[in-house]
Amino acid sequence: MNNSRYEKRDKRRKTNVVLNTLIGLVFVLILVIGSQLIFGDSGAEKTAKYNEQPDIKLASEENKAEQDDSNEKTAENDDKSEDKDLNEDEGIEEEAKEDEETEEDSFEQATITEGEPGSEIAETIENPAWSPIGTSQTEPHSANYTKGSQDWNEMTKALSYATGIPESDMIIWFLGNNGGPNDAAGTISPKDKSVKYKVYITWVENNGWKPTKIEKLN
Fold it and tell me: Which residues form the DUF1510 domain (predicted)?
């Protein structure tokens, strides 16, 4: 009877030991698996972040390169704009200088005669160096005094050639016939009205209009 009880206790004790051991193993497994899940995810996140960093760095370097290229292009455009403005300014100065030289040259070989006191003519200017300005018209020629016509444009060039006043700076007060079929006269001044001229021109066959005399008016 006592032996039977002892055997039962011994079996129960052994069973408890086995169960406790199994429970302990299960608990250990749970701890191991849980730690792997936790620390494994953390490591994966760190790895992912580490792997992303080169892309961020590369993108930053590309942005910097693009910014440098943009700055260089902006600087080049600014330089070109400055060069263009400088060239335009130089062109304007040269054009003004040429206009002044043209006006001076137009009277360089001229004979200038003082006008009569009290008359409307201050000076009479004649230049043997004047020549016909050329023409695109064919013979026979008939003068056309309509503004904008081929004759009008060529007569205007002759007036500019004789006086040295650029066509773009010229006021035409009168331009018309001067008594003969091939003779005309024009009264002109620069836009600032600083001086007024009456210019006499004549048609030279196949060569166009030629200045013959200028009267500087009072």
Answer: 125-217
User: Residue 200 forms beta bridges with which residues?
Assistant: 185, 213
Q: Rounded CA gap, 29 and 120, in Å?
A: 126
- Would residue 213 be called left, alpha or beta, if left means φ above 0 and alpha means ψ between -120 and 50 degrees? beta
Q: Up-side HSE of residue 81: CA atoms within 13 Å toward CB?
A: 6
Q: Which amino acid is at 141?
A: H
Listed residue (148, 150, 149, 158) closest to 203, CA to CA: 158
How confident is the model over 52-100, as pLDDT tens digits? 554 545 555 666 666 666 666 666 666 666 655 565 656 555 654 554 5
CB of 188 within 8 A of CB of 170?
yes
137-141: long-range contacts (C-beta < 8 A, 24 or more apart)? 137/208, 139/205, 139/206, 141/182, 141/203, 141/205
Q: Is the pTM of this model over 0.70?
A: no
Backbone dihedral region of 132: left (phi > 0), alpha (psi from -120 to 50 degrees) or beta? beta
**8 Å CB contact between 210 and 158:** yes
* Separation CA 152–CA 155 (nearest Å): 5
